[in-house]
Amino acid sequence: MIGLEHFLIVAAGLFGLGLYGLFTKRNTVAVLMSIELMLNSVNLNLVAFSRFIVSDTFTGHVFAIFNIAVAAAEVAVGLAMIFSIYRDRKTVNVDELDWMKW
Amino acid sequence: MGELSYTAAFYGLAVITLAAASGVIFKRNLVHSALCLALTFMGVAGLYILLEADFLAAVQILVYTGAIAVMLVIGVMLTQRPDMTQSNPGNNLMIPAALVTGALLAVAGWAIVGTRWEAAPAVVSENSLAVIAKVLFRDYAVPFEAVAVLLLVALIGAVTLAKGADDK
Questions:
Q1: A51-61 pLDDT, tens digit each
Q2: B28 in helix, strand or coil?
């Protein structure tokens, strides 16, 4: 019987992979991809809780829809910033983007 | 859907999702990572279908696989030198990152397994879209409008940032 725990464990694995990528990636686009993985795992958690705990209100579905909209906005602005940085610096390596360092 | 086919579908989709997510992180070529990311989104959409969230599965495929993954591929193409084979390198934080991630997974797994979840009786709704529409446009109408404004701001901001401030 597949229950709530199974979906939560898959989502936790997805979040862990995203977190690991966020820490270890050098390319800014790969960092954005890791953030997308983490947002997806959160959405999966919301929908799983909505299905198994409060299956009559669909609040988790609505939260997931808002989350998807925010993720789309985030990736659009993030990629625009990456293009802008790439035009100025000819690199998207996060280790070299350190001119705000004190 | 039968119990056995549901279980098989869950494990198949979970393995696909997690394997593709590992591909996103561990592939050396950033284009392969982006394609693995699209496969991860498809796997999550399948899990949504198993959770009886058919509308969200459609939104997931349209927005994530259709828009975000393609946008990320364009981002990869526009910001890479001709050599793609080593375009996704890692830094020297692998061991601390693995420690932190392992600790997080251990705590999350302990919490998930150790909690007694009060499973509500599953209400099988024949049409989730009608219920979502009611909740979204009545109870959450103000956040819905706020998200619309956020998307407009993100659109204008992205165009302004990508165009550059100096070229008129």
A1: 888 877 888 89
A2: coil
